[in-house]
Amino acid sequence: MALQAATSFLPSALSARKEGAVKDSSFLGVRLADGGVKLETSALGMRTKRVSTSVAIRAQTAAVSSPSVASASPSGKKTLRKGVAVITGASSGLGLATAKALAETGKWHVIMACRDFLKASRAAKAAGMDKDSYTIVHLDLASLDSVRQFVKNVRQLEMPIDVVVCNAAVYQPTAKEPSYTADGFEMSVGVNHLGHFLLARELLEDLKSSDYPSKRLIIVGSITGNTNTLAGNVPPKANLGDLRGLAGGLNGVGSSVMIDGGEFDGAKAYKDSKVCNMLTMQEFHRRYHEETGVTFASLYPGCIATTGLFREHIPLFRLLFPPFQKYITKGYVSEDEAGKRLAQVVSEPSLTKSGVYWSWNKNSASFENQLSEEASDAEKAKKLWEISEKLVGLA
Ligand code: NDP
Ligand code: PMR
Fold first, then answer.
1. pTM value?
2. Cβ of 325 less than 6 Å from ligand 1
């Protein structure tokens, strides 16, 4: 299924074909050999190898495939290789702005992990991103199979993975009925939390083996999941309760579709998912920071009132929300500015502290923010971790 999805968006960057189904594959730069697939990438400076799966990849890897983290320049000075950052949901809004900000530095190669290849490709071009600064790889967080396939696919790129940014999200404030992921989880928590949970757990191995000086896993949070703020007190408020709905599978069959076991509410499901994101970051920190040296961080980038996140909201909301945030709450931030903020969390040497939820003040200076009582509850984080790993098949 994942392959079928993958074949529908083909590639300037990554291509997939079912074995035996390839007739004329020359335009893909792929030849079948001994039932496997040969990667034709020598022109890009990438090692050519035979792979046993049916996925073939062409990627712009020349700048990052160097085996060692620092190499000597002609002047004898050591230079750091490009960092490689995976960003989910990089086809619009914050993810795209961050990809652009990183690419523009010339120091980063971005793996844009997106569910819609064409949209991502057009967005990267429209943003003026240099074609050598990114690779688009298909990822649909609403399917655990797709997450697992994505992990296989990025590994075949043979690039190191130095930073992972869990950014993608859906928000369904006007939905009357729940919708579900391929695995039967309520959509907002399924995509925003469970899909990312599996992805982050899998890619931790890759982060561990990266030789980059500062390796980071970032999970985007939000103010609206934090009930210690005015924004977090706008109903419906986030509340995971005792996680009985999540423990029941969040499928609406044997259990509620809401984490706390209540009635479906799309806006609450989103805010609950953001609490999960912030709790997960802290649990990662507690379990893995010392052992791996990876920095785990979350953030609230500001209110980016113009993004696609509000696409399902009523038109009046979409009209009034940006001026309301700009002139009344003054919480508004442009996509460009928010992208620069997240790019700082990816790459600034001063933001290496692990376990932190970053925010920015009126002068756009970063600071360590306080999470709400629930979003910093260590016991809840542990319980959330244990239930989530069962749901995604890791335990
Ligand atoms: P956008 O809707 O612009 O971006 C969301 C991205 O997630 C899109 O690229 C979208 O893909 C992708 N996505 C959605 N579903 C899936 C899926 N199933 N699989 C893979 N990708 C998917 O919203 P924002 O940029 O505003 O949101 C980005 C992050 O910022 C979110 O985590 C959000 O919670 C957070 N945030 C946003 C704030 C705001 O004010 N906007 C404030 C605080 C936090 P596609 O393009 O194909 O739809
Ligand atoms: Mg909010 C300082 C006040 C502040 C800030 C920073 C936000 C951010 N909001 C604030 C206040 C208020 N909001 C107030 C007083 C109201 C009542 C009028 C209000 C309402 C409101 C709505 C209906 N706000 C919203 C919504 C949404 O649908 C958005 C949401 O909850 O999405 C999940 C939203 C947001 N307000 C924010 C931010 C950042 C959001 C959206 C994004 C998010 O958390 O991801």
1. 0.88
2. no
